[in-house]
Amino acid sequence: MLKRFNPSAIDSDAAGPLTRRRLLVNAVAFAAASAGASRALAMTDDVIRLGQSVALTGPLADIGKAMHTGARVCFDSINARGGINGRRIELVVRDDAYDVKRSQDNLRDFLKDPEMFGLFGVMGTPMVEAMLPMIRNTDVPCFAPLTGASSARPADMRNVLNVRASYPEEADRLVEHLATIGLRRIAVVYQNNSFGKEVLQAAETAMRRYSLKAVATATVQNDASDAPAAAQAVAAANPEAVLIGLAGKPTIVFVKSIRAARKGLPLYALSVAAPTLAALGEDSIGIAVSQVVPLPTNSVMPVVRDFTHAWRAANVGFEASHLALEGYINARVFSEALRRSGKTINRKSFIDTAWSIKRYDLGGYELNFEQPGRNASRFVELTMIGRSGRFIR
Fold it and tell me: Is the separation of the CB atoms in 107 and 132 below 8 Å?
């Protein structure tokens, strides 16, 4: 029987007691690392251990908890059926509160542990960017980081395996939709950071393909101090729709400001803004949002039915979401790569096997690991926020 999952416990180390053997192993590993020596992976016969650094506290805690819980539900379900090739999958989670330094500290601890097979679901573009130098020229797998940024898709690192569609792919899909329904006067508002600039560049590239040109572009600082002014500038251009490349607080302030200036103006946003928008109440109604996984209530898709069954059996205690489903899917994909690797496994063989996965249908969600620098999924669909605050198709 699947053990009930306790959400209040997910911010623990989950690494178990520090036995004399564990202390000795860690001490030897740390000394080797300090001396610049290479460390061999101490594989065990019955466990594959993965390290995950995510925000379990702080303003983005809902995102981190949902992603982690979706993955944990999947791994627990697999473990309850005997694991993969006789091995259980142990997901060791540590809270970084969406702080780069804390994330780096967590990841260093994971990398010092010779029993840690790899990294899974590391959350956030700044965290992943800071992590990449730590695992460059190593065989440590980094599987399914939570970011759509191109910077997290290095073409020269085979050990970084991205699953979700990229931010540029989401922006491209939104522009394609706008062009298809005949809207031509499009404004773009974007955050003044690497994420926002990447969204702007992708949107402009897509608009050129459809012979469109932005009637206005406006930037918003990370502290949202200029979001009201950006909304006024956008409204003054009289667009037919606005593509929003914002995340976090800037999303809230801009949406409220643009709603005050132009009540019925169609708004389109990327998946990264979804959790923020869903909590905005009436101001969020009617906003279209691109998503990189299916609607978690779309039971027509087999992968969603599998997820729903595992989620309910785990009795998690909060409602399923796109992010929880994404965590579940990432865990399923990792497990499939592990299954195909066979009973005799090491990091290199796992990475080679993962890259060999082509046109794999995970119940309506196709994966195709092509080459480093590319994500395995190209899935992007549009949803809308309904009056209930829930996403609908």
Answer: no
Please state, in angstroms and rounded to a whole number, the distance separating the CA atoms of residues 251 and 267.
11
Residue 63 near residue 43, CB atoms below 8 Å: no
Residues whose CB is less than 8 angstroms from the CB of residue 306 and which lie 6 or more positions away in sequence, other chains included: 332, 363
Q: Is residue 302 within 8 Å of 364, Cβ to Cβ?
A: yes
Residue range 47-65, pLDDT digits in tens: 999 999 999 998 889 999 9
The token pair at 376 is 């395995």
Report how far residue 227's alpha carbon sits from residue 277's, in angstroms, rounded to the nearest whole number: 15
pLDDT in tens, 339-369: 999 999 999 999 999 999 999 999 999 999 9
Annotated domain spans of the chain: 7-164+299-378, 167-291
Task: Just give the CATH number of 7-164+299-378.
Answer: 3.40.50.2300
Predicted confidence at residue 389, as pLDDT, reads 80
- Same fold for the pair 7-164+299-378 and 167-291: yes
Residue holding tokens 């700044």? 126
Q: Could you tell me the two tokens for 184?
A: 């031509």
Which tokens sit at 170?
A: 């989401």
- The CA distance from 318 to 316, in Å, is 6
- What's the rounded Cα separation, in Å, for the pair 116 and 93? 12
Q: What angle do CA 242, 247, 250 make, to 5 degrees?
A: 75
Predicted model pTM: 0.87
Residues contacting residue 366 through CB under 8 Å, at least 6 positions apart: 359, 360, 377, 378, 379
Stronger pLDDT, 4 or 65, i.e. the higher one: 65
| pLDDT, tens only, 65-105 | 999 999 999 999 999 999 999 999 999 999 999 999 999 99
Strand order in the sheet with 216-220: 216-220, 186-191, 241-245, 267-269, 288-291, 381-385, 391-392
Second CATH level (architecture) for the domain 167-291: 3-Layer(aba) Sandwich (3.40)
Helix axes 322-341, 302-314, angle to 10 degrees: 100
Q: Is the model's pLDDT at 183 over the cut of 50?
A: yes
